[in-house]
Amino acid sequence: MRSILTSLVRFSLLWWVFGDISEKESIICEVEEECSSTEHPSLPSFLDRWGDFVSTDHPHCVDKNERDCPMKALLNACVKSPDVMLEECPFSCGLCSNYDTEKSQVKTCYGDLQNVNNQGVLEVIRKTQQYMIHQVFVNETYAKIRSSCKNRNVNCSQWAWEGECERNPTYMKKECAPACQTCHWLDIRIRCPFDESSAKERTTWSEPGDLDRFFWSVVRNDTLRTLFSLKVLSGPAEAIEPDGRPGPWVLQLDHFLSAMECERLIDLGHELGFQRSKDIGRIKYDGSTDSYESKSRTSSTAWCTESSVCGKDAIQQKVTQRIEQLVQIPINNSEALQLLRYEENQYYKVHHDYTPLHAGSMAGVRILTVFLYLNDDRLEGGGTNFPSIHNLTVLPNQGRAILWPSVLNDEPGQIDVRTEHQALPVERGVKYAANAWIHQRDFRTPLHMGCGV
Ligand SMILES: *[C@@H]1O[C@H](CO)[C@@H](O)[C@H](O)[C@H]1NC(C)=O
Ligand SMILES: *[C@@H]1O[C@H](CO)[C@@H](O)[C@H](O)[C@H]1NC(C)=O
Ligand SMILES: *[C@@H]1O[C@H](CO)[C@@H](O)[C@H](O)[C@H]1NC(C)=O
Ligand SMILES: *[C@@H]1O[C@H](CO)[C@@H](O)[C@H](O)[C@H]1NC(C)=O
Ligand SMILES: *[C@@H]1O[C@H](CO)[C@@H](O)[C@H](O)[C@H]1NC(C)=O
Questions:
Q1: Overall fold of domain 199-448
Q2: Which of 282, 295, 328, 444 has the maximum number of C-beta atoms within 10 A of its C-beta?
């Protein structure tokens, strides 16, 4: 009895909230079983009105018997035997509805409570409900992302109503996918269709030998040699100086940046704000990768993203243009410049810049690292050490650049394990540095499209 009463109260309340006056009267009438059957609403309008909201108590809020439930609901079974119907036909009955009148919020089984501040927002929620129940929960196309398609903000429905799905699609289509009806967007294969074999002509170093050709072109460039006192720290026997290591290419260019440029990059790092560096983590709900603080890396980082004060800085832009010319790869293939700060005793233990999770993505794997040292004054330690290249260590020197590949000359796209490296602990002072991680293909355009890795 008690549960029937609860249902009746909920029914009336919902109706009071969502129905117009005459409908409200008619439903109360039904509840009291005083109306003639001719006053029952038609099936579609009944579903429209009652099939609206889903509660977290009923994960998928679908009718167990899709054929019979609407009819039973129409015949007042929801009111007559709510316990059974709540179990069997929650959708048709709308018994799983959940509207908090005090807070003006609707609870759904796909994400956060939704703020409702006007009728338009309710309409969005109503349509979302239809979309989730009739497409996402039942259509196999959505199987992979079904459980991750959630409104991840209380204001999703309101924003959708205000037109934000169109105005701010990068955020909305992922964070408010139900409200925008863009659950498919969470599937990175659908969001970012990509076929690696057809992208070959846009891929840097796609053929065996390309990598060596690039490094030779730098090493044989007299302008570069004299301008930057170029040194082959490691490379093929024919390329190295007597004290060089035989192994993968590691080039050193001194005075690649002027002191003024170094100071500016350090200042920009402080303007952006250095924050604890992170490592690449697991794959997230939207197919991109997460980041996490790791004990193997204690430095701090500031990302010089395009839209930031740093990205717009003319001196920084000049530096990245110089990198672009040196590596002969479009700057769009590069991640934003990462500005680094290592305080005393901070380090980055042995790691590799190559990330297997990037393989087959639009941008592809990292193929080349350009590392810049921004200061050396009153600095001890903090060298870059390559344990698998005869323990080569490069010392910080203001304006010095070093570059090394992450992939093999003979097998494009495959990791060259020999270029694993570490940032040795700073023994005294503070070390400032920067690096550009360069990918096989355009990194920045996919990032803007929500296809970043
Ligand atoms: C499933 O969803 C896809 C993509 O929206 C659509 O093309 C297809 O027709 C749907 N299938 C059914 C059975 O509704
Ligand atoms: C939702 O919107 C309201 C105002 O419309 C705002 O005060 C609130 O901070 C927003 N909540 C979130 C989590 O964005
Ligand atoms: C040497 O490198 C510079 C800068 O990257 C470039 O402009 C120039 O064309 C190169 N010279 C030759 C002969 O390749
Ligand atoms: C490698 O070089 C580092 C830094 O110079 C040094 O601390 C370490 O002992 C060396 N390791 C080996 C195995 O020689
Ligand atoms: C580089 O990326 C930006 C987006 O960051 C894009 O607008 C631009 O067209 C890209 N340039 C090229 C040459 O692809």
A1: Jelly Rolls (2.60.120)
A2: 444
